[in-house]
Amino acid sequence: MAKPILLSVDDDSDVLRAIERDLRSKYGAEYRVIGSDSPERALDLLKQMKVRNDSVALLLADQRMPQMSGVEFLQEGMRIFPEAKRALLTAYADTNAAISAINEANINYFFMKPWDPPADHLYPQLDDLLDDWRASYRPAFEGIRVLGTRWAPRCYELRDFLARNHVPYQWVDVEHSASDPETKRLLEVLGPEATSLPVVLFPDGTKLLESVPAEVAQKVGLRTRAQTDFYELAIIGGGPAGLAAAVYGASEGLRTVMIEREAPGGQAGMSSRIENYLGFPTGLSGGDLARRAVVQAQRFGVEILSPQEAVSARTDGPYRMIKLADGGEISCNALLVATGVQWRRLQAPGVDKLQGAGVYYGGDATVALSCKGEVIYVVGGANSAGQAAMNFARYAERVVLLVRRDGLSATMSKYLVDQIQRTPNIQVWTRACVAEVHGETRLEEISVLCTDTNKVERVPASSVFIFIGALPQTDWLAGVVERDDRGFIKTGPDVIQDGQRPKGWGLDRDPYLLETSVPGIFAVGDVRHGSVKRVASGVGEGSVAVQFIHQYLSKV
Ligand SMILES: Cc1cc2nc3c(=O)[nH]c(=O)nc-3n(C[C@H](O)[C@H](O)[C@H](O)COP(=O)(O)OP(=O)(O)OC[C@H]3O[C@@H](n4cnc5c(N)ncnc54)[C@H](O)[C@@H]3O)c2cc1C
């Protein structure tokens, strides 16, 4: 933990050195002692400290300085760090000025120069001041801080990215600056930069304006570039299926890289509570599952590139080549596609415009917390919508579940239906769908079409979370592997047509169970045609695929 700061300012370098020496010898173990020979420079330092989220315990300034008096400096300093204790260093001739400063300018104490011996004329009074300061001191947050507004899509995107990558951060909502003096002070120190949202402040004092996930990822040390250009196994997608394959592949000695576009965990990472995964009788959050799996994969030496996206693939003799979004290319012996599915878009006027500003696809703990005391809408009737409704019900005043059908039982697991029925602040609105969403810069109302009466009801709403099914995004593999008409990748027996192996197959064996129409390219999990859309089945397929990959590699 960073030590709180004692800052002294004196234009006389001998006096400055003496005060620094005495402060350091008595307080150096607990405090950082910093000196400045100019009040202007000291104010700049204070601004940098505010941006770094440092704690300042004491401002000690000489009264007679040419550019700015000690009292003026302390008053300015107090605007930035109001909790810091303030003391003046004065000569005998300035005693009257110092006394009136105590009364008029909120100065806590004045010391006469020279203060020898410090044990009598400096330390006892400073001990008192610092004890007082300690009594109300709360250590500042030491990680990165994100400044933004709840309704700005770019801020939402960044927070979602940080949360899903398990990067701890403190959220500073700049719209609360009127009611939160600390936020107001921070915005004043940042000046015009505070409008380039989202602003990310790092503990080393650096900042990113209008920051985007990729920049922040680099700064916090998430790896996006491969260490080498060749791997025995390359996995595209870091959901449960990709992570399982990574753990099994690397643990069995394959040099393995896993490329993930957003954050390891995939859809499962968005789940507030997975209750049907074997071995976790009370359930576990998708975030926890992802974090544990990432640690396990890294322990076996898997190289994880995230955020990084595969944008095309091709074959070159025995090699499978993958082009990455940053222009890089890696090659491998075996390629495993585990890119899962992505949310289906809700086709209703206003939805695209307000995405991230009250309209969300999925929804994690970050947003759930912001909905405290509000009425929110969840669209969808499957397990993902049910889990989200249960999660949001812990924070929101009321959760309205909008369901197209006349009930939940056909599309949702019974345990979730039972939980929803037992939760008093969840209302299930059946035979209903979103017809339109309204709002200029943020969601304000939604129009709900009641399909039994064909009437549209317009209701106030601050947040709508959409969970209406998902589809694969596999266009980057068009012309490489065979897909069905919805884009799911065909594997094993599904690529055999009328007893014929795929065109250009070229081997005297049929494709393995999880192998695509191209030898050495495998597909597992939700992206696979005919797969069971569950965490356990994705994990199972990812693990089993590694056996087929070994068999394939033994003959390459
Ligand atoms: C909210 C929610 C709750 C759920 N709850 C449960 C539950 O309780 N129990 C259960 O069994 N199942 C549940 N499911 C379903 C389960 O999460 C999925 O079946 C499972 O995650 C599928 O795993 P996967 O690895 O195949 O794909 P995904 O989890 O979809 O992961 C695919 C990954 O690939 C990445 N990707 C995609 N394209 C690219 C590319 N071109 N380059 C790089 N990366 C790419 C994506 O960013 C994603 O991270 C839930 C799903 C959701 C959304």
Q: What attributes does this structure have?
A:
alpha/beta, binds flavin-adenine dinucleotide, 556 residues, 26 strands, single chain, 15 helices
Bound molecules: flavin-adenine dinucleotide
Helix content: 25-40%
N- and C-termini, Cα separation: 54 Å
Radius of gyration: 30 Å
Structural class based on helices, strands and sheet pairing: alpha/beta
Number of strands: 26
Mean pLDDT over all positions: 94
Description:
By secondary structure, the protein is an alpha/beta fold. Helices cover 30% and strands 22% of the residues. The protein contains 15 helices and 26 strands. Strands 10, 11, 12, 13, 14, 15 and 26 form a seven-stranded mixed sheet that branches. Helix 2 packs parallel to helix 3. The chain is elongated and about 105 Å long. The two termini are 54 Å apart. 43% of the residues are buried. The mean pLDDT is 94. The site of flavin-adenine dinucleotide has 38 residues, from helix 10, helix 13 and helix 15. Flavin-adenine dinucleotide binds next to helix 10, helix 13 and helix 15.
Tell me briefly what this model is:
30% of the residues lie in helices and 22% in strands. By secondary structure, it is α/β, with parallel strands linked by helices. Strand 11 (256-259), helix 11 (286-299) and strand 12 form a beta-alpha-beta unit.
